[in-house]
Amino acid sequence: MRKEACLRGLGTGLTRGLSTDYVGTGAASPEGLPGWTIAEATMDGSRIAAIAIRSG
């Protein structure tokens, strides 16, 4: 989910390859793709969403 959000933000989709970038784990991991903030949110207790925001 985190990786999908990031690839969508890059505009490449899955054509970039799933093993190309490491995006970290957890709700607000400081590790991951440089220049990006990637976070997760629980929606109504049963769904999880991810968002990727490019910094700068």
Order of H and E elements:
HEE
| Alpha plus pi helix count | 1
Bin the helical content: 10-25%
Q: Largest beta sheet, briefly?
A: 2 strands, antiparallel
Distance between the termini: 23 Å
Give an overview in words.
This protein is α+β, with helices and mostly antiparallel strands. The chain contains 1 helix and 2 strands, in the order αββ. A two-stranded antiparallel sheet has the order 1-2. The longest helix has 9 residues, at 2-10. The protein starts with a helix and ends with a strand.
Summarize the model shown.
The chain has 56 residues and is of the alpha+beta class. The protein contains 1 helix and 2 strands; from the N terminus they run H-E-E.
Highlighted features:
single chain; 56 residues; alpha+beta; two-stranded antiparallel ribbon; 1 helix; 2 strands; 29% strand; globular
Question: Secondary-structure blueprint of this entry?
Answer:
Blueprint: H1 2-10, E1 36-43, E2 47-54
Antiparallel strand pairs: 1-2
